[in-house]
Amino acid sequence: MRGWRRLAVLVALTLLSLSGETVAAEWGTINPGQSTMEAVRAQYGGPTRTATQKVEGYDTAQWVYEGPQAPGGIRRLVVDFGLLTPAGFQPALVRSLTLEPKPGAFTQTTVLEGWGEPTKVSAAGQPKSFFYESGLVVLFDTEGWQVETMLFTPPQAPAKGQGTPRP
Fold this sequence. Notes:
Layout (H helix, E strand, L loop, with lengths): L1 H15 L20 H8 L4 E7 L2 E9 L7 E12 L2 E14 L6 H8 L4 E2 L7 E4 L3 E5 L6 E6 L11 E2 L2
Antiparallel strand pairs: 1-2, 2-3, 3-4, 4-8, 5-6, 5-9, 6-7, 7-8
């Protein structure tokens, strides 16, 4: 499943520069494209570990919360900072938020009740995933029921030719 997660992250990163300043799907009061490092630290405290890297030539930061520092029901929370906006690169702005829930914490029903019907779903024969234009990609286990990864980003335009549109 790591390949699908990596693909979802790459698609989201590619589309981030196209997004405007609109409301994104949020989790735990953290809103990609709007929340800052200070807001994340106020909500979750200091991270378990940090890393820095270059993304498209910009210095970015990543905070990881695991074990007792992770929010309840979450095995791992990863917050990536550094977003290119129309006003320029903002190093302290949340670019994405990745949740890896504990088994049973989120199911397909939980996602549908919390975020509604997805904009698109994965194509038949592909691992189950939901795509929301509001900035959420949900990847499910092989049975298509338990959530393995939730990726929150600023709002996204649907990728052409990907998945099945929802009415």
